[in-house]
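Lecture notes, unit on protein representations.

Consider one protein chain, 99 amino acids long.
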Amino acid sequence: MIAGTDCEILRMPLKTFKEFLSPSLLDEYTSLFNMVFMRLLNLYRKSPRQRYVALCEQYPQIVETVTLKDLSSFLLITPNHLSRIRRELAKSPGKNIQK
């Protein structure tokens, strides 16, 4: 497993893990489903530029911590296309997303 940023990994027996999650397991699955569903919808509803802006607004430090190659992969666009989007946003007055 390779992490893109500092993280903490916990290791515990599966039985303990199931006991830990069982009261709220349905809520966790529902939350995860909603997150994945909204991501899928946004792939169809929003342009790559809109998805990039929304991602940067939700996670302001993402450009500093994640490589542009990984960001473009997450947005399902090429690194060249992401570079074009970033250049256009840098030229736009009042919408300086990147640092």
